[in-house]
């Protein structure tokens, strides 16, 4: 397991213990976090980072600031999904909580 994947699941356990709505699920044949039927986040296996669902405007702002990139599996950009490749526990925790507020 990569450092990014380990960090993601450490933060996932923390988030699931704080909010019982957050559960492990699957998306695109990979493990992820969900809130009910809504996607919340997953490890980004291709870039060893984090993918989190946020409002499209927020995603655009973060990308414009140079702090993330579009998530575009198979070339299709998902406007509400942000990919973050820098390992930063505090930032990832904040983004996961922001994502939870959005999808929850």
Outline the structure in words:
The protein has 104 residues and is α+β, with helices and mostly antiparallel strands. It is 38% helix and 33% strand. The chain has three helices and six strands; from the N terminus they run αββββαββα. Strands 1-2-3-4-6-5 form a six-stranded antiparallel sheet, covered by helices on one side. α1 (3-18) crosses α3. It is globular and about 35 Å long. The relative contact order is 0.20. The mean pLDDT is 94.
Number of strand segments? 6
Count of DSSP-assigned helices: 3
Strand-residue proportion: 25-35%
Order of secondary-structure elements: HEEEEHEEH
Rounded mean pLDDT is: 94
CA-to-CA gap between the ends?
A: 28 Å
Shape: globular
Quick summary of this structure?
Helix content is 38%, strand content 33%.
List the helices and strands and how they pair.
Blueprint: H1 3-18, E1 22-27, E2 30-35, E3 38-44, E4 49-53, H2 56-64, E5 69-71, E6 78-84, H3 89-103
Antiparallel strand pairs: 1-2, 2-3, 3-4, 4-6, 5-6
